[in-house]
Amino acid sequence: MTSLFRNLKKGFISIALALSLVGCLGVPEGARTVQGFELESYLGKWYEIARLDHPFERGLSNVTAEYNLRDDGGVQVINRGFKSDNNEWEEAQGKAFFVGDTSTGKLKVSFFGPFYGAYNVIALDQEAYQWSMVVGPNTDYLWILSRTPVLDQVIVDQLLSQAESLGFKTEQLIFVDQEKQQ
C-alpha cells in the first residue's frame, strides 16, 4: 500500500509541476530579449558554463545543449550531461518554438507533453554567436552558454554583472565542469 501511495504522490507532484509551467513564458522584470536574433546562427552545440541549480540538472557536469532545425520550423533541443553518481551520460530531448517575432530571442521550450517554459535569450554575441545568456520567466532560471567549454572570464564577469543588476542570485550559480566530453 505504501508503494502505491508513493507512486500516486509522485504522479500528483509531477502533474502539479507540469501545470505550474503552463503560462510561464514571461521575461524577468527589467530584462529584454535580444532583438535581431538569427536562429540559423544560434543552431548547433553550446556548452553550459554556469547555471542556477534545479532538480532536472542536479549533479550533472559536462552539460551541453544542441539545437537543430525541425521540419515544422521549430527547434529540436538535445540536452546532455554526465552524472558521476551512476557514471552515465543523461540526455533529454525537447522542442522549442518562437513566441512572436522570429527575430526576437524569445522562445518556448518543452521537454514533456504540451507544457512549455520560457527560453529568453537576454544577452548574445550577435557578431559571432559565441556566447549567450538565457533566462526563464523569472530570476530562478539562468544559464550562461558558450560555443567552447571555457568562456573568457571578462565576458563571464560582464554577464554576471548584467544578471546581478536584474536581481539574479549570481552567488548561487554553479560553474559547470566541462573536462569530460564525449
Question: Strands across the major sheet, in which order?
Answer: 1-2-3-4-5-6-7-8
- Broad shape: globular
For this structure, the CATH topology is Lipocalin
Q: Tell me the strand percentage band.
A: 35-45%
Name the features.
182 residues; Lipocalin; 8-stranded antiparallel barrel; disordered N terminus
Describe how the helices and strands are arranged.
Elements: H1 2-21, H2 39-42, E1 44-51, E2 60-69, E3 75-83, E4 88-98, E5 106-112, E6 115-124, E7 131-135, E8 142-146, H3 153-165, E9 174-175
Antiparallel strand pairs: 1-2, 1-8, 1-9, 2-3, 3-4, 4-5, 5-6, 6-7, 7-8
Describe the structure in your own words.
The protein has 182 residues and is α+β, with helices and mostly antiparallel strands. It has one domain: Calycin beta-barrel core domain (Lipocalin). Helix content is 20%, strand content 37%. The protein is built from three helices and nine strands, in the order ααββββββββαβ. The protein has helices at residues 2-21, 39-42, 153-165, and strands at residues 44-51, 60-69, 75-83, 88-98, 106-112, 115-124, 131-135, 142-146, 174-175. Strands 1-2-3-4-5-6-7-8 form an eight-stranded antiparallel barrel. Strand 5 and strand 6 (115-124) form a beta hairpin. The longest helix is centred in the N-terminal third of the chain and has 20 residues, at 2-21. It is globular, with a radius of gyration of 17 Å. The termini are far apart.
